[in-house]
Fold this sequence. Notes:
Blueprint: E1 5-9, H1 15-29, E2 50-56, E3 59-67, E4 93-101, H2 110-123, E5 129-135, H3 139-144, E6 148-156, E7 159-167, H4 168-178, H5 180-189, E8 191-192, H6 211-215, E9 229-230, H7 242-250, H8 252-257, H9 265-275, E10 282-285, H10 288-299, E11 305-310, H11 314-324, E12 327-332, H12 343-350, E13 357-361, H13 373-382, E14 388-392, H14 406-409, E15 415-420, E16 433-436, H15 439-447, H16 456-466, H17 469-491, E17 498-501, E18 506-510, H18 518-526, E19 530-531, E20 533-534, E21 546-550, H19 554-571
Parallel strand pairs: 1-8, 4-5, 9-19, 11-12, 11-13, 13-14, 14-15
Antiparallel strand pairs: 1-2, 2-3, 3-4, 5-7, 6-7, 10-16, 15-16, 17-18, 18-21, 20-21
Amino acid sequence: MNRQLQLRAATPEDFEWIHALRHRVYAQELGQHPPDPSGRLRDGLDGDNVYLVAARGADRVGFVSLTPPWSGRYALDKYLTRDELPLLAEDDLFEVRILTVEPRWRTTAAAPLLMYAALRWIAARGGRRVVAMGRTELLTMYLAVGLRPVGRTVRSGAVTFEVLTGSVSELTKLTTGRHRATLERLESAVDWRLDAAFAPRPDGCEHGGASFTAIGTDFRNLHRRHQVVAADVLDAWFPPAPGVRAVLAEDPAWTARTSPPSGAEGLLAEVATTRGLPAETLAAGAGSSDLIFRAFGHWLTPDSRVLVTDPVYGEYNHVTERVIGCRVDRFRLRREDGWRIDPARLSAAVSSGRYDLVVVVNPNNPTGRHAPAAELRSVITAAPARTRWWIDEAYLGYAGLHESLAGLAATDPRVVVCASLSKMYALSGMRAAYLVAEPATAAQLRRRTPPWPVSLPAQLAAVAALRDPAYYSDRWQRTHALRRRLAADLAALDETLVVEEAVANFLTVTLPSGGPNAAQLVQECRRQDVYLRDLSPLSSQYQGRTVRIAVRDTAENARIVAACRAALDVLRPGAAQPAPAHGGVPAAGCAR
């Protein structure tokens, strides 16, 4: 359809029209600003704002402006102080500004679609709250989409504005629920050229990477596994230990048809022996996500208050906020601090005792940084007695198993350690994990565990893996060497790339501002069957410019570097741009 409504990011060619339309509407029509002899209206935020444009064929229809938190200032700062409007100091706040439509298009779907496009763009950048100034005469329209007044009005020229706000998750839920049929119809009718997916995932979180979709979830084209580089999920690059492969191959027919030990007793006994822990402190699960859902669902309610690091593995935000409905606060890790946890700052954050649960992934995903066990132990020891700590050690082998807090968890009722066997032991397909807690807590969770939580193949594989520490220690060391080489090769592609590696089996690459963004790099690499993870939806701190890349073997790492090189050649300013696939780039989310 040549005349369908197109939604896209503004191009340099759009700005003369944007400034002219702003002048016609806000200076001449509404009297908010005095007329300018140039017939153009600009302001000091133009360099920081992002503009989304609606167009039909060659005709530009309207636009909306977005001010991201990394700009450091908002238009509302001209009218209200941070004391008068404290939400302006929130970390993940995006300002939606000057929704403007050409007069002859104001009775069409252009304005609602621009508002929806703004919401999707913000969600794709990790935004959690929006703020806007809505003209008082249009207040009904803003209330209908879920925005709520904060009790402040702003006068600018002849126009009075109501200050409005809303959470991104609630606005998304309201919009997709109330207007589901309309959105489903529009998805095929609109030429959607934004780098955010048109529709959010049904539960708001992407569980698993997109790479398996490329292979085929119907399992009919498994040969594609040899063509796809799955660097968007953090599965091990190496095979399981020889003993694992042997036990799975010994009698697969028996293994497939036989019910496993109902409580994974043999697996837990092996964990107890290998880790030097009392068996009564352990509970088994079909992967760490099973344990997270089960434990959090038991402990937490919508009245609970939770502290998570930011950024962090997205499953924690998903379970606490979307599934349970807790109040979730973020403990910001700072790029300028190397994404490390500052123990003094964390201790101060939890000292009031207001948190029911604190979640720490260590080493952290997606930053890869490891907090020394001694530092975390000191923070926990000094923390209030009512606060429970959940320590996720899915990647601890890469930092050293001696850094585990499992021993503390076995004796301190405030501490639980979750240990996945997926990533470190090359068993992601098996789904096996365990948690460590003092005996009473562990017993409570075992009582809430259905029988046969871990399959027989998974139990056999996990036991065999734990019995071969030398094999895995060697593979973890080789992972460090592969990561360092991959980091060096990626950094050599362009001096403006910021490549950050830490201790785990992945690294991050941040693109410079003013160039291609993370979603574009991910999409372009997929054309070569190389799958990377766009970290933008996890945290606004990434500013839409950071991807996470899993370490693969030497050959696949070379393919990653080659794909990034080719993508950057295409995406750099001046290069011919490929048309985006309809529906934009799928949003990243929860997958490890």
